[in-house]
Amino acid sequence: MIPTIFLKKNEIIESELQNDVLYERLKDVNIDKYTSFAWDRGDRTALRIKEINPDINYHITKNNLSVIIDDTIFNNEYLIFSEYAAVKNTIYIYRRCINEEFIPAIPEKYKEWRDFEKLRNVFICHEYYHHLEINDIGLTAELKKIEVAFGLFKVKRKIKALNEIAAHAFTKRFLDIN
Amino acid sequence: MQAILILILFLIIAALMVTRKIPTLIALPALAIGIAIIAGIPLKLVNPETKADTGLLAGIIEGGSLRLASAYVAVMFGAWLGQIMNQTGISKSIVKTAAELGGDRPFFITICITAAIAILFTTISGLGAVIMIGSIAVPILLSVGVPPIVAVSMFLFGMGIGLEINMSNWSFYITATGVSLDQVRNFALILMALTAIDALLFAIIEFRKEGIRFTWAQNNLKQSQKVNESQKVNVFSLLTPIVPILFVLILKWPIIPSFMIGIVYSLITTQKSIKNAISTLTKTAYDGIADAAPAVLLMIGIGMLLNAVMHPMVSKSLEPVLKSIIPTTPVAYVLFFGILAPLALYRGPLNLWGLGSGIAGLLISLNILPPTAVMGALLSTERVQAIGDPTNTHNVWLANYAGIDVNKLLMKLLPYIWALAFAGIITASILFF
């Protein structure tokens, strides 16, 4: 497992799409225009926010977001690194998962990120993007829906993975992870 | 004096089980043999009229081992069908289809997946099945923004709904309490509906309270542990879990032949050649029986305990004590079993899959309560155990998988499942008194 954020753009997109409920139905859809839209949206939002202030913690404080570092939760099968709870306006960062699984899996090329204190901002950035989606710019997945067929019926559906793709693009741009 | 010694032994064994010093698997036969020794049941005790040996060796140990034979054979057939559903991709397809049908809203996706889990667990059971289905359903729920504790709770509710009408379990309830299939079926269907209502209330309240979450997560399963992604199944095969139920409910077939029909149906709808079908049939039979082994061993112990507590020499000594404790009016019955329902947790005395069977056996053999009322009370308290018990291996696995504490999970569920047990007991008091 290589942490998603340290994958290349197309690998991040594929990895996130694989987690989407509709993944198996996406094979028949020209998905590139949707994922490019999401990536660009995350990227552009990062530039805009960075221009206001390049320190992510400034935005966290300004928006009264709580950041909780949790040292208890860990499971080595389905790794949860961080969460944004919209109702509580809180970001949770799961330190054990990060220290025990995320950091050892960071590729050599990105070795300067093998430090929890530095990585903390990666997760804060990612979750802050979701905060922006909920409170400011709207969910990325809401903006572009695809048409899927269930037997004779065709319905428009959101691709939830677009939210995550955009959040990764936001983080990469904001923290210059290239 | 004998009654006091038996109760002391019961409390010691219960304490050892609750504190997890000894597993249920050992505790139940030990309790059965201990009770028989205290009651003075000899190794051999042949009834001169019937020639039946009700002694410790033939009556309690051997007879007890076989007492629930029909129930554990049903469990084996259910597990066999469950393995076919897992290995051919039916289970995965049902969960994925439900998620797709759920639409865009996390709440509706959750309800659809819970319904799919309920359908699956009407047929399958065991930790292997929970791991198989949980590792598909839980990430889907988390990926759409359902908080981990709500996702796991809804999985457990789904399981609880399905297991209530899982016919392997009906077979056990019938044999353990001596009531008829019709009586178990009617009450189980009511409890299933109550559990579904409870699950819906839980989802409405908790979604409002917790809201949605965004989770940065990554699957860390090795390739060999991942569910085969390429399995595609025929749409008719998705009906497999309800085939045995339809045969029992509508055609009034017995449970084991209905499972066999389910097995044949699943093979017809998933296998392309007879050779493949036979190979799948054989492999899943062995895997299914391995899956069923813990339940079978548990039932062997329960059978011994039932034969011990229902032995005339034991019930005679316990009768006065129990008659002074157990309520016999509907209101007292509701309050007694309702308030004490959490005693089904941690392998406690109201757990039908453990010490509760012994209590049920005693209450029935002493005619303190009607068998249907005993069945109703214990099936209702079983809801608390089946959904919330932190000693269930499936609760532990699910909690670990979603990264939550299994005791916090119980605390989240307890108000809902306790209320559910009360609702079941009130229903039983109306129906069976």
TrEMBL record, chain A:
Annotated protein name in UniProt: Uncharacterized protein
Lineage: Bacteria, Bacillati, Bacillota, Clostridia, Thermoanaerobacterales
Organism in which the protein naturally occurs: Calorimonas adulescens
Automatic annotation (TrEMBL), chain B:
Regions that span the bilayer: 25-46, 66-86, 106-133, 140-163, 183-205, 235-268, 288-309, 321-344, 350-369, 413-432
Keywords: Membrane, Transmembrane, Transmembrane helix
Keyword Cell inner membrane included in the entry's annotation: no
UniProt keyword Transmembrane helix present: yes
Superkingdom of the organism of origin: Bacteria
Protein name in UniProt: C4-dicarboxylate ABC transporter
